[in-house]
Amino acid sequence: MINELNPSKRLLMGPGPSDVHPRVLRAMTTPLLGHLDPEFLKLMNETKDLLKLVFQTENKLTIPMSGTGSAGMETVFVNLIEPGDKVIIGVNGLFGQRMVDVAERTGATVIQVNAPWGEIIQPTDIEAALIENPGTKLVAVVHAETSTGVMQPLKPLSKVIHAHNALFVCDMVTSIGGIPTEIDDNEIDAAYSGTQKCLSAPPGLAPVTFNARALKVMANRKTKVQSWYLDLSMIQNYWNDERFYHHTAPITMVYALREALRIIHEEGLENVFSRHKIYGTALQSGLEGLGLELLVKKEHRLYQLTSVLIPEGINDFEVRTQLLTKYGIEIGGGLGELKGKVWRIGLMGYNATQTNVTQFLAAIEDVLREQGFKCEPGAGLLAANESIKDQVSI
Ligand SMILES: *Cc1c(COP(=O)(O)O)cnc(C)c1O
Predict the structure, then answer these.
(1) Which residue's CA lies nearest to atom 6 of ligand 1?
(2) Beta pairing partners, 110
């Protein structure tokens, strides 16, 4: 006999998935509607409207694609790129590297602009690449690099990219619902995201948004989109008033996304952003209070994902195992060139609370101490609480 499913209780404080809001879980247990039921069509429209609010855009083509964040990445590249197009991609972490891989598979000529992992992509480097490669169609960067914890400033890039008549594409998988995306204000032409990071829904949908400039590029394609499944010229006609059947929408995931967006809208976007900032900064102060060092310098840090350097002599795997088995807390290890060098700690969406900061700092202090790490007892919590007090009194 195979036992009934009964997963252990976890606090998901890694780079995603993060814990799902109970209201989202509840929405997912409601009965299915058919994907062309008029009642479901209404839910689709509401989901699109909420998505525009949370993405901070008026873009008509703002819809969730079926699949995880990477499907969103692929959607943007297969729909905007044709074989032979020149594409510039900023690479300062794993997800920039993934964009290169995806873009190359579309037949694009990819020019990489690199920065060390843990630092931002420099607008001057993008500008130099644009000058060196006239006729570049598109430039892409990762807004919130979950592999490092870096927040990429967008405005300076936007200016440079548009001065060279290229499209500006952003990976916003970890940004949405955590930090401002300001698609319209930043003049981002296309962006993609995911449901399982700061939206606090399970992995399974990839919200994407395209502005008029991007739509024009798609309308002028000479070749068919290589992917049938991700071809927006067909999928748009399911999400607009034509309601043309393309593939069966993952009904339950649309329920989940709609509820997740509704929760964010209820709290208020500005409140959601400031909650991430307050508790993310508190966690960072707490880690520093324990004597740990963070990978990213202060002005370029994300709030929803923090990379902390693993101290000398401390066993990476042991610490993560202890956190999981003793406290039920999951954090992430390092990826790529940061493997074995950092831990990645997420405070995303529903999880960005003082309770979780306190619980995590207490747990990590205990586990590190067991490993022989020397620190002032309670110094992490003290620093975190000071940081919260400072921010709330402003
Ligand atoms: C998680 C993540 C992705 C990939 O999303 P999946 O849901 O794992 O496919 C892409 N980009 C960034 C920045 C991410 O954090």
Answers:
(1) 69
(2) 87
At 374 the three-state DSSP class reads coil
Separation CA 196–CA 205 (nearest Å): 8
Fold category of 21-265 in CATH: Aspartate Aminotransferase; domain 2 (3.40.640)
Ligand 1 atom showing the smallest separation from residue 146 Cα? 15
CA of 348 to the centre of ligand 1 (A): 14
Q: For ligand 1, atom 14, name the residue with the nearest CA.
A: 173
CATH architecture group of domain 269-392: Alpha-Beta Complex (3.90)
Beta-strand relationship, 205-210 and 61-66: antiparallel
Domain parsing of the chain, residue ranges: 21-265, 269-392
Q: What is the pLDDT of residues 10-27, one digit of tens each?
A: 999 999 999 999 999 999
Q: What is the pLDDT of residue 59?
A: 98
Axis crossing angle, helix 269-289 with helix 354-370, rounded to the nearest 10: 20
User: For residue 193, how far is its CA from the centre of ligand 1 (angstroms)?
Assistant: 8
Average pLDDT, the chain: 97
Q: What percent of the chain has pLDDT over 70?
A: 100
* Atom 12 of ligand 1, residue of closest alpha carbon: 173
pLDDT over 70 at 394, yes or no = no
- Whether residue 168 contacts residue 189, with contact meaning beta carbons closer than 8 Å, is answered with yes
Sign of CA dihedral 264, 265, 266, 269: positive
Query: Ligand 1 pocket: which residues have CB below 6 Å?
Result: 16, 68-70, 95, 142, 144, 146, 171, 173-174, 194, 196, 203
What does the pLDDT look like over 274-333, one tens digit per residue?
A: 999 999 999 999 999 999 999 999 999 999 999 999 999 999 999 999 999 999 999 999
CA 293 to chain centre: 24
pLDDT for res 211: 98
